[in-house]
Amino acid sequence: MITGVRGSGKTVLLTEISSRLRTDDQWTVIPLSPEADMIHSLAAKLSNVRKYHELFRDAKINLSLFGIGLEIDGEPPVTDDETAIVQMLSGIRKKGGRVLITVDEVTNNPFVKHFASVYQILIREDLPVFLLMTGLYENIYDLQNEKSLTFLYRAPKVQLQPLNMSAIASTYRNVLQVDSETSAAMAKLTRGYAFAFQVLGYFTFLDPEHDYHSVMTKYRLYLDEYVYEKLWSELSGLDRKIVECMAQHNAQSVSDIKNLCGINNSLFSTYRQRLIRKGIVDGTRRGFLSFVLPLFDEFVRDQILFYD
User: Fold this and answer.
1) What CATH number did the domain enclosing 282 receive?
2) Residue range(s) defining the domain that contains residue 127
3) Number of CB atoms found within 10 A of residue 147's CB
4) I need a surface site. Which of 4, 156, 179, 180 has the fewest CB within 10 A?
5) CA angle, 168 as apex, 297 and 247 as ends, to 5°?
């Protein structure tokens, strides 16, 4: 499970891993949409893997259900997707093959819950199937807290962290042909946020003078429109209250933030952890909170000024 704030590079990482494994003939990569019948889609896509057609035929797996035209004479047709999947994966196991299933931006819906319960069975059967999912923290948290899906708690989880600032500066310096001072200043403006790194670099590259100062308005508008407005809409009232206190008063001390918001210790601890997991604030420095996302404090102050 790969999790992180919107724009942190979850999909990019998923795509890169999928691309690398596709170069290995041992692996078959099956992308699934979380907004459709994932079990039927998995069965259909497995049946379409050409390198295993003869294998499925020899194993007397009837694939006419999926429109492949490999009906086996004298064999009863497969009447359900799960049976077909188990039969196909069993055949792939005998050939030493492996299947990676990828799901981007997973949510807690009936399709995903059904798929996860079937996947648990496939794992128990020791079939060569692997799962890589990306999602926002709250969506993955909701999914793994389903009573029948607690096995997901044991799945390794990768929380994407900010990009390396030196690497960002080096990229800007090499691509834009700017000096070290300028590239370092640009890197600081991104705070290591992957989407910000892309947007600032893109607009600066388009500028005739490669002057990042002249693209700051566009840079901020892109962050607001494509990420921050959505993040803001997903925050609860108390989430917003805490970040508003931080932004309006430039507060970073936990004691100051609690006093400004009028929140007791136990309640603040709960919402502090929520904001950290959402990737909005950083709590690694003991007794302090700071914003992770670039210019997010300015965005919050605008919400207070224009809408509250």
Assistant:
1) 1.10.10.10
2) 2-159
3) 5
4) 156
5) 5
Q: What is the pLDDT of residues 22-49, one digit of tens each?
A: 999 999 999 999 999 999 999 889 988 8
Query: And the tokens for 46?
Result: 């497995």
Phi/psi zone of residue 279: left (φ > 0), alpha (ψ -120 to 50 degrees), beta? left
Is 174 in the same domain as 276?
no
Q: If DSSP states are collapsed to H, E and C, what string results for 148-194?
A: HHHHHHHCCCEECCCCCHHHHHHHHHHHHCCCHHHHHHHHHHHCCCH
Contacts 24+ apart (CB under 8 A), 114-117: 114/38, 114/39, 115/32, 115/38, 115/39, 115/42, 116/143, 116/146, 116/149, 116/152, 117/148, 117/149
The pLDDT value given to residue 84: 83
Q: Are residues 135 and 74 in the same domain?
A: yes
Nearest to 4 by CA among 225, 194, 188: 194
Low-confidence spans in the chain with pLDDT less than 70: 58-79, 308
Q: What is the pLDDT of residue 72?
A: 44
Specify the number of domains making up the chain.
Answer: 3
Q: Write the DSSP string, 57-114.
A: HHTT---GGGT---PPTTSPPP-SHHHHHHHHHHHHHHTT-EEEEEESS---SHHHHH
Task: Specify whether 193 is located in the same domain as 278.
Answer: no
pTM score, two decimals?
0.82
Examine the domain organization and report whether 148 and 183 are in the same domain: no
Q: Output DSSP code: residue 207.
A: S
Q: What is the pLDDT of residue 70?
A: 45
Q: Which residues contact 13 (CB under 8 A, 6 or more apart)?
A: 2, 134, 160
**How far is residue 192 CA from its own chain's centroid?**
17
Q: Tokens 């359900």 map to which residue? A: 80
Same-domain check for residues 216 and 243:
no
Query: What is residue 69's predicted lDDT score, i.e. its pLDDT?
Result: 44
Q: Is residue 69 domain-shared with residue 136, that is, in the same domain?
A: yes
